[in-house]
Amino acid sequence: MSATPVLYLSHGAPPLADDATWTRQLADWSAGLPKPKAILVISAHWEEAPLTLGATTRVPLVYDFWGFPERYYRVTYPAPGAPELAAKVRKLLHSPGTGVHEAPDRGLDHGAYVPLMEMYPDADVPVLQVSMPSLDPHELFELGRKLKPLRDEGVLIVGSGFFTHNLSALRQVGGTDGQPPLWSAEFDQWGAERLHAGDVDALLDFQRKAPAAGLAHPRIEHFAPLFVTLGAGVDDAAPRTVIDGYWYGLAKRSVQLG
C-alpha cells in the first residue's frame, strides 16, 4: 500500500462555496485521491502552543469570520471525530518536556471545513484539527516530518492556508476577474518555480528570498501550513500544483506531494 498523498491548499473564505470553478477544482482533486481513513488538518486559523488537538467528538464549528451574510453562520459539517488518530498524533509528538494539549470543545474552523465541504461533502471521513504551535518554518517542517508515518496508515494530511494573503492591500482589486496585484503575481510565480524545483531551502527562507514576501504575507500564518506539508512529504518528488489562479487577487495555488 502506497503512502497517502499530502496536500497544501488555499482554503478561501466562506463565499468559496459560491465559486463554481474553485469548488469544482476541489471536488475533482479529491475524486482523484484514495479515500482517506481519516484527515488531519493544520489550518492558518489556529495558532496555539504547545501543539493542541481539537475535538475528537462532533462539536459545533468555529465561525471565525465577521461581516458575512447570516447563511454562512448556519453551515454545518458533521464529520466524525477521530479519537484513534488523536492517540497516534500524541504518540508521534510526545517527548520529554514537550506535551500535547487537548481542546475537546474546539470545533473545525473555516480553514478546515470550508475546503472539506467541497472535497468530502458527505462528511463521512473522520477529521482531526491540530494547532500550529509556532510560525517558524523549520519547526513546522519538523512537525510535518514527525507526522509523516500517518500517511502509511491512510491519513490525509492537509495544510490549509492561502498562497498569498494580504487583505488590506486588496482594496483596489475589483473582483474575481480582475488582474492580481503585482505583489501577488510575483510571489506566486516565485513560489511555483521553487515548488517545481523542489527547492525546500528557498521556501523555508521565503521571507528573505521571495519577491514581495512582506506584501504577499505581512503575517505568515497563511503560508506556514505549507511547511508542515513539505515536512510530511520530505521523501517525495517535488510538489505538483493541482490548483492555480487567483481569487480576488490572492493566489490560490494548491499542491500535492505523493
Describe the structure.
The protein is an alpha/beta fold. Helix content is 31%, strand content 17%. The chain contains nine helices and ten strands. The strands form three sheets. Strands 5-2-6-1-10-7 form a six-stranded mixed sheet, sandwiched between helices. It has a two-stranded parallel ribbon with strand order 3-4. Helix 2 links the parallel strand 3 and strand 4. Helix 4 packs across helix 9. The model has no long low-confidence stretch (mean pLDDT 94).
Task: Walk me through the topology.
Layout: E1 6-10, H1 20-31, E2 38-47, E3 52-53, H2 83-93, E4 101-102, H3 110-119, E5 127-132, H4 137-147, E6 155-161, H5 182-197, H6 200-204, H7 206-209, H8 213-216, H9 225-232, E7 240-243, E8 246-247, E9 250-251, E10 254-257
Parallel strand pairs: 1-6, 2-5, 2-6, 3-4
Antiparallel strand pairs: 1-10, 7-10, 8-9
Strand order of the largest sheet: 5-2-6-1-10-7
Overall, the morphology is: globular
Average pLDDT reading:
94
> Low-confidence runs (pLDDT<50, min 5 residues)?
none
Structural Rg: 17 Å
Structural class: alpha/beta
Strand content: 15-25%
| Count of helix runs | 9
Percent helix:
25-40%
**Number of beta strands:** 10
User: Main beta sheet: strand number and arrangement?
Assistant: 6 strands, mixed
N-to-C order of helices and strands: EHEEHEHEHEHHHHHEEEE
Spatial separation of the terminal alpha carbons:
13 Å
